[in-house]
Each structure stands twice: as C-alpha cells, then as structure tokens.
Design a protein that fits this description.
Layout lengths: L2 E6 L11 H4 L4 H14 L3 E6 L3 H10 L6 E5 L8 H10 L3 E5 L21 E4 L3 H13 L1
Parallel strand pairs: 1-2, 1-3, 3-4, 4-5
The chain binds 1,3,4-trihydroxy-5-OXO-cyclohexanecarboxylic acid.
The site of 1,3,4-trihydroxy-5-OXO-cyclohexanecarboxylic acid has 10 residues, from loops.
C-alpha cells in the first residue's frame, strides 16, 4: 500500500475561521477527512500533520524518510521564508507536491517567492481543498 504524508504549516489549523473569503469555509477537520477518505478510496493511506512551528515541520519531514512514497506539502507562510523546510524536503528525496489553497501568484508580491518550488514534482495553487486531492492522485500515479 502506498503511503502519502500531508504536511500543513502555520495557521492552517484555523481553516474555516481564518479569512474564509481567501481560504474557504471548510474547516481543518473537514480537510483532513477529505484527504484520508480520498487516499483510502484509491487503496492508499494518508498521514496528515499540521504544525505552527518550523522545526516541528522539519522533524516530521525527516521522519518520513523511508516511510512514505510521496509528500503533499503546504508550508503556508513558511513557503516564503523557510530554507530549512526546503532543505529537509530535498534531504529525504521523497517526491513532493507543493499545494496552496489560494492562488499565491495573484496575491501580495511577497507570496510569489517559494523556497520549496524548485525541487517540487508539481505545484498546485488556487484550487482550495481539491488541490490536495489532485496532489495525492499525482503522487499515486508516479
Ligand atoms: C497558503 C498561502 C500562503 O501565502 C499563506 O501564508 C498561507 C496559506 C495557501 O494555502 O494559500 O498560510 O499557503
């Protein structure tokens, strides 16, 4: 059975409350359920992790080495700042998809910079929750 790790960065635990005009009304718990159900329907397993702390995200990515076939990562604000998360993803060398709920290229200029984009197998932005499900399908197709 293929195993996919989904990593979500800071403030994504507040989905449903947080700027719903940008991120939608769906809650974080609903996102987790959709991800788990989607993977299970395809005969795969998804582990879902969220943290507001950069080092905890680095630790989780490191622990994925040898244990997962693909990573779906939405580093949230750390997308635009974190060399450490980008380096961890490269270090474990597990194919990963960069996902953003919103269309980050159509927002403030500082959101156009992504440290994780260059080594990503694919990038999905502006598709809301569906972006995570598309990312899982892509990783399972590899
Ligand atoms: C985000 C976009 C980031 O710029 C922002 O800091 C987030 C969420 C998204 O999913 O659209 O927290 O990654």
């Amino acid at each position: 059975m293929k195993r996919i790790l989904v990593v979500n960065g800071p403030n994504l635990n507040l989905l449903g409350i947080r700027e719903p005009e940008i991120y939608g009304k769906g809650t974080y718990a609903e996102l987790v359920k959709q991800i788990r159900d989607h993977a299970a329907a395809r005969g795969a397993e998804a582990a879902v992790f969220q943290s507001n702390h950069e080092g905890a995200i680095v630790d989780r990515i490191q622990e994925a080495y040898g244990a997962f076939d693909g990573i779906v990562v939405n580093p949230a604000a750390y997308t635009h700042t974190s060399v450490a998360i980008a380096d961890a993803l490269k270090a474990v060398a597990i194919p990963y998809v960069e996902v953003h709920l919103s269309d980050i290229d159509a927002r403030e200029p500082f959101r156009k910079i992504s440290y994780v984009a260059s080594a990503a197998a694919k990038r999905i932005t502006g598709r809301g929750f569906a972006g995570y499900l598309e990312a899982i399908d892509f990783l399972l197709s590899l």
